[in-house]
Amino acid sequence: MLSLRQTKAAPGWAATTPLRRARILNRFLRILEERIDELADVIVAEHGKVHSDAVGEIQRGMEVVEFATAAHAAVKGELTETSEARRS
């Protein structure tokens, strides 16, 4: 279930262009890169993982964000008709 804060943020994020979203997420990635050791230390303290595993976990998450930020570029490709458009 979405929290009140999430439901209030959703319309603003939905209105944000894909390029702007990618820029925001890329800034987030830079922050993660700058603070990866600090974040890994928190994971080690809270979950008992070894530091290298914690860093790997963060890096895998960063890869997901990197993939997501590239999605707007894929949308600029060739457009095809949907089945509804062909019926019109």
Describe the SSE topology.
Blueprint: H1 4-15, H2 18-34, H3 36-47, H4 51-75, H5 83-87
Summarize, please.
By secondary structure, this protein is mainly α. Helices cover 81% and strands 0% of the residues. Helix 2 packs antiparallel against helix 4 and helix 3 (36-47) crosses helix 4.
Question: What integer is the average pLDDT?
Answer: 82
- Helix percentage: over 70%
Q: Give unreliable regions as ranges.
A: none
Distance between the termini: 37 Å
Radius of gyration: 18 Å
How much of the sequence is in beta strands? under 5%
Order of helices and strands: HHHHH
**Total strands:** 0
Oligomer: single chain
Shape assignment: globular
SS-derived structural category: mainly alpha
Count of DSSP-assigned helices: 5
Largest sheet: none
Structure explained in plain terms:
This protein has 88 residues and is mainly α. Helix content is 81%, strand content 0%. It is built from 5 helices and no strands. The protein has helices at 4-15, 18-34, 36-47, 51-75, 83-87. The mean pLDDT is 82.
How would you describe this structure in keywords?
mainly alpha; 81% helix
